[in-house]
Structure formats: structure tokens, C-alpha cells
Amino acid sequence: xxxxxxxIDIISLGVLNxxxxxxxxxxxxxxKILGKRMTMHAGGHGTSLSVASSRSGVESxxxxxxxxxxxxxxxxxxxxxEQVNHSLIQENKQESTGLATITIRxxxxxxxxDFPGANFNLRAExxxxxxxxxxxxxxxxxxxxxxxxxPAIQLIKLANELHIxxxxxxxxxxxxxxxxFNVDYLILTKTNSRSLCKFxxxxxxxxxxxxxxxxxxxNKAIIFQLDEKGVxxxxxxxxxxxxxxxxxxxxxxxxxxxxxxxxxxxxxxKGTNLEEAVIKAHKASMxxxxxxxxxxxxxxxETLASL
Length: 307
What we know:
The protein is α/β, with parallel strands linked by helices and 307 residues long.
């Protein structure tokens, strides 16, 4: 694995998968649907978060576990190409690297199937192996997922002890522990807000109600990323609607929220003020939604610099 003495700005924790993205077509052969296109890329929330931050111009690292197989090498090689530090990623010889299938269907929600594989073998105590590197980070970002819940809680506890800011995207299941977390920024979507709050958030009244449920455990801001409806930014002092774009067309939401988070965190590290960081992150995530796929839909460094 990679060795580096370079300080890490942002450490990202999320599942590490290889994504198979399959576009279903309209034609049928008998009972079979004829597919339009299939692509395979390194993915998972951890990869997406760290790539977004790296492309935004900060020193980024991913923490997690992959199998000792070709898919694991694909993830490591991609992170290396993206200038993401992967020295905090461990290999597991017994389990295969996580896989995810994403099926894009016309006028239907995407169908996601996860095979977490080696992600399930990342333990809470593994986080402590990298305490020194974590202690030097300027920010932690985590996309919670059932497969990594215990190590995620350990990382949050350690970051709290070290007074490192934390950005969290809750998963849409197994989030009973969430109310006990002490985080700085909470990022919600229509989907995970429905799971957390038991109602979807798609207007300012609902956003205001939802924010009152969690602001006690959030130090700085709750951010509701609502696609073309814009972003609700809730702090203890006020709520602001930012960057609406009703004319936007979204083809695929698969990588949007992770890219939003990665850009947002990077902008804060670079000293951008909160509202401007939210707006830039939203613009970047909306660019992701214009293309089908995850990794291949991410805006380039040059595009991000121009936003």
C-alpha cells in the first residue's frame, strides 16, 4: 500500500465498491429487456467523496477495506490516478472487494444492489490503527452505510476527541445511532430525510421542521440538497434557500450527493464561506446529474475550477 508523509486535509470514509452501471433500453427480445450500455468503474461512497475533494484541489485520503483481487486493484489504481492518498486502505485476503450494480430504467427509479464484501470486514479497531494520520487531518467526511457503521462511529468519536470537524451523509437505513452523534455538518436529501424524519423534505416548511429535530446534535449547519429546487442551508440562526435551478434536467442521481459533499468539504478547507461552499457544491452535483453513471459523470478539475 501507498506510503506518504504528506499531510492529509480530508479523510473520507464510505464503502469502497466497483460500480457496474447498466442502462436498460426500450427494446425487448422475447421477455428480455435489451440493454443500451454497461460501464464499470471504481466507486462506492468512499471513492466518490475522496475523488470529489481531490479534484477540488485539497489533499484527500480514503479509509476502508478492499479485497486482494482485480476489483480492489481497480479502486486503488483509480485513487492513485486521482491523487487520493490510499495508505489508509487495507486489503483483505479472505473477502472479495465490494460490488454495486446500478440499473438505470426509463421513467423509473434506479435499481441499486450492493454486495459489500470486504467492506463488512472493516472493524472499529481498524480506525485506531490510523490515529496518527487522522489526528493530522483538517476534516472528516463520512457517508454512513450499514456495512461500515461501527468503524464510522469509532471515527466520529475519535474526531470529536481531536476536535476535527465532521461532515456526515446519513444512509437511508440502520441509523438508530445517529441522534447520539456530535457532528458539524449534516447533509440530507429527499431520500435520507424521509428515512430520518419519516417525511420527505421538499419545501422550506418541511426543511425548517426537520432541522429542529437534529440541530441540537449539529454544531454548524444542516444542508438539504434538493436537486433542481436548490439547497436549504439551516444554521442555529437562520434558514436560507440557495441556487435553485428549475430548468435543470437530471438523468441519474447516483453520484450526486457524494460529489456535493466532497466539493463542499474541500471548499471549507480552502477558506470559502459557508454559503458560497454550498452553492459551488450544488452546481457541481447538478453537473453529475446530467450524465448517466457515477465516476464517469464527475466534473473535471478544470470544470470545478470554473464554477
